TrEMBL record:
Cofactor: pyridoxal 5'-phosphate
A GO MF term: threonine deaminase activity
Name the record gives this protein: Pyridoxal-5'-phosphate-dependent protein beta subunit
Gene3D superfamilies referenced in this protein's UniProt entry, alphabetically: 3.40.50.1100
Stored PANTHER family: L-THREONINE DEHYDRATASE CATABOLIC TDCB, THREONINE DEHYDRATASE, MITOCHONDRIAL-RELATED
Residue ranges that the Swiss-Prot or TrEMBL entry lists as coiled coil: none
GO terms of biological process kind: isoleucine biosynthetic process; L-serine catabolic process; L-threonine catabolic process
Keyword Lyase: yes
Keywords assigned: Lyase, Pyridoxal phosphate
Domain Tryptophan synthase beta chain-like PALP: 70-369
Length: 386
């Protein structure tokens, strides 16, 4: 298999090298307060075997991946939820089962492998919490030095994780967007490979493995996915999910990309607003949602995410914080899967959109992060006895 970058803006081709992050031409039009322009996408040429292993369908060879079991997460068949809502083919893709407790490990895993292949020791990133704890954990397995810019408002568990894994932590007095800017300035000045989400194209490519696994897990029971629900912040998971299904379609193993529901919080809805504004992003709006992992003012992968949604007739929907809190509690109580608020957001989206879906459809909810990562917000959905 041969891999190369294609610019999602101008279709130009590039070799995959550590110093290339965004398209040199398209990124010149970059304004400060908008999503990234010139996002590079990994393209492939070659035959994909029917029984492929997702790890062999990535642009870094298998031997460079660090010894930590990322991915291969279970696909649950939640009997009680199925019965309650009358969806006999409802599935939960449990990405809380990743080593650091979130789907972010898929991106960190590929970035770590790429760094090892190119003998890079230092990785720099900004995070709302999970990308940082993930890169720190996967980096620990790989023997990499991680420098992390984290807003002071990040849930303590995510910060503690990163420190336990041995990352160098810079606490930022401001939001994620400020942490992002500071991390970019730092890596430009001091060097190190940036793992900033969307900016490093391998973050999108790494996250595609969740779609490859869903495809394979349903293939085992002779099914294909009809609807997939994804929670959306920067839109990198969404982009990765589309990329994974598109790759399997391109390889001739799947007929069509499923209908994807991009679920955002009402208080962090930039992609939803852009979808209803011909793909244009207006001035950033300050985000407020209890789901910290999807709280972003400027979704870094916004243009790419909108393009995917529009080209594949995806849906963009919003849920309130109240709906997220209720969905988190209900998911835990009725299935046994305890997710953080952003992790339960896909379920909240399903509850809102389910009347639009045929009851016999194969519906997959991607549960992106563990409930233990944010106890403070989980307290809002329960009553603690005296
Ligand atoms: C990062 C994250 C998301 C959103 O992913 P984006 O790529 O930013 O859209 C959703 N849920 C959890 C738990 C996350 O950590």
């Amino acid at each position: 298999m041969k891999y190369f970058y294609v610019c999602s803006g101008c279709d130009k081709h590039f070799d995959i090298t550590p110093d290339l992050m965004v398209c040199p031409q398209c990124s010149q039009a970059q304004r400060e307060d908008e999503p990234l322009r010139g996002i590079l996408e990994v393209a492939f040429e070659g035959e994909l075997p029917r029984d492929f292993d997702p790890l062999d369908f990535l642009p870094v060879e298998r031997q460079y991946f660090p010894p930590i079991p990322v991915g291969n997460t279970p696909l649950w068949a939640p009997q009680r939820l199925r019965a309650k809502y009358g969806f006999p083919n409802l599935f939960l893709k449990d990405d809380t089962a990743n080593p650091t407790g979130s789907l972010k490990d898929r991106a960190s895993y590929l970035v770590a492998a790429f760094a090892r292949k190119h003998q890079i020791r230092d990785i720099v990133l900004a995070s709302t919490g999970n990308a940082g704890s993930s890169m720190a954990g996967v980096g620990a397995a790989a023997g990499l030095h991680i420098t992390l810019f984290l807003p002071k408002s990040a849930p303590p568990a995510k910060m503690v994780q990163a420190l336990q894994y041995g990352a160098k932590l810079i606490r930022v007095d401001g939001n994620y967007d400020l942490a992002y800017d500071q991390s970019m300035a730092y890596s430009h000045e001091k060097g190190g490979l940036s793992r900033n989400t969307a900016y490093n194209p391998l973050t999108i490519e790494g996250k595609k493995t969740v779609a490859l696994e869903i495809f394979k897990q349903l293939q085992q029971v002779r099914q294909t996915p009809d609807y997939v629900f994804v929670s959306v912040g920067d839109g990198v998971i969404l982009g990765g999910v589309y990329k994974g299904f598109r790759d399997v379609v391109k390889a001739g193993l799947l007929e069509k990309v499923p209908t994807i529901y991009a679920v955002q919080a009402e208080g962090s809805s930039a992609i939803f607003r852009a979808i209803h504004n011909k793909g244009q992003f207006g001035m950033p709006v300050s985000s407020t949602t209890i789901a910290d992992s999807i709280s972003v003012d400027i979704p870094r992968n916004g243009y790419y995410a909108c393009k995917q949604i529009l080209e594949h007739q995806g849906r963009s929907i919003l849920v309130s914080d109240e709906q997220i809190i209720q969905a988190q509690k209900e998911l835990a109580t009725e299935s046994g899967l305890f997710a953080e608020p952003a992790g339960a957001t896909a379920f909240a989206g399903f509850l809102k959109a389910r009347t639009e879906l045929p009851a016999d459809a194969n519906v997959v909810l991607i549960i992106t992060g563990s409930g233990l990562k944010d106890i403070a917000n989980a307290m809002k959905g329960i009553a603690v006895p005296e």
